[in-house]
Amino acid sequence: MKKNVFAVCDLEVDYALNFMEYLNQKRNIPFEIQAFTTVDSLTAYGEKVHIELLLISGKAMCQRVRELDIGKIIILSEGVHPPELDQYPSVYKYQSSANVIREVMACYGEEKAVEPTVYPVLKKCTQVLGVYSPLGRCLKTSFALTLGQVLAREKAVLYLNLEEYSGFGRLMGKEYDHNLSDLLYYVRQGSQNLIHRMNGMIQTVNNLDYIPPVQTPADIRGTAWEDWEQLIREIVRDSSYEILILDIGSGVDGTFQMLDLCNQIYMPVLADSISVCKLEEFENLLKVWDFSQVLSKIIKVKPPFHMGNSSMETYAEGLLWSELGDYVRKIVKKNENER
Length: 339
Prior knowledge:
Layout: E1 4-9, H1 13-25, E2 31-36, H2 39-46, E3 51-57, H3 63-66, E4 70-77, E5 90-92, H4 97-111, E6 127-131, H5 140-151, E7 157-162, H6 168-172, H7 180-188, H8 194-199, E8 203-205, E9 208-211, H9 218-221, H10 225-238, E10 243-248, H11 255-261, E11 264-268, H12 273-288, E12 298-301, H13 315-318, H14 323-338
Parallel strand pairs: 1-2, 1-3, 3-4, 4-5, 6-10, 6-11, 7-9, 7-10, 11-12
Antiparallel strand pairs: 8-9
Helix pairs in contact: 5-14, 7-10
């Protein structure tokens, strides 16, 4: 089974080729990417192959394109376009490629009901990595972000922060239009095109994709375990990601069940007496509640405390080349050698 085709057609050659190059670097896009710089080449291709999604400049759109077998057409607009194109959704051309693809995926997810069995995703099995600790101030999130960026240099990786207070808006220096709360809403509504909606929310740091975390603690505390499980299983089953990293906070319902879903769990620990006692209590509770199998998945780590020279907004990117980055690379390499 082949991937569906996402075609981009722009008469401006440099734009079309640069945009295609960006798309080919995004391993999470569940489409085969094709770029065209003339209407003739697009129609010749479209007469032979079904195009599921077409992003086309207003200047290239014409009757010949309308007659092709295309699942969804989105106009790449320069700000104004002829009234006859108003029937199609549009995205503004002169913005970052990341914003363009985010808007395209959001549009496709909103208006196109997609069954996973109809539009298959080709990938290897998705590995779920948990990062969790019953301790505080142990660099859990810094470790998780670093791990994600290291792995994302070779694979398609998605990071989800499941903490009540993530600080991501301040950390990344961004304001987000959509976040994990929106995605959880779609889960509760039973959305059939959840993954395409999710792709419309994706942000990226050093090739690591992430969904902006929730903005209020109630969105973590009020989410039932069954909804978390549904979200995780759909990402594993239907997305193009090879690795899903769960940065698990203490407010998540069904923490032990979530840990049990993970293939591997990294647990930052500390060596002081109180921390040791807390870890023993956590491990005993796993046994009491019949989750002893989780213990065999846990890899305890002691991330080095590091002094970043970068600003708050560049902290996440700087992790990759920090002392913590060196530490994580050694752990990843060790785990690969042991397989």
